[in-house]
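S1.2 Input.
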Amino acid sequence: MTQAKADMVVDARNMEPPDPFVHTMEALDAIKPGQKVLLLLGREPFPLYRALELNGFSWQTEHLPDGSVEVLMWHKTQ
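S1.3 Output.
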């Protein structure tokens, strides 16, 4: 994934919980349908996936060679 695919980027690689979740949800609240948020993390955010599902978002996760994770999120289409 590249940052060019996202309208907003949340770089949470140096944040402590719950800050990555809070910043991600704030970013998702700010986007319009058709826009995307890219989350950069040092580990896979398993609890986030349930919140995304419950709030009507789709996502794609990519594991990078350095061990970090990118999660691209967007509103589900109706």
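S1.4 Remarks. The CA atoms of residues 64 and 70 lie 8 Å apart.
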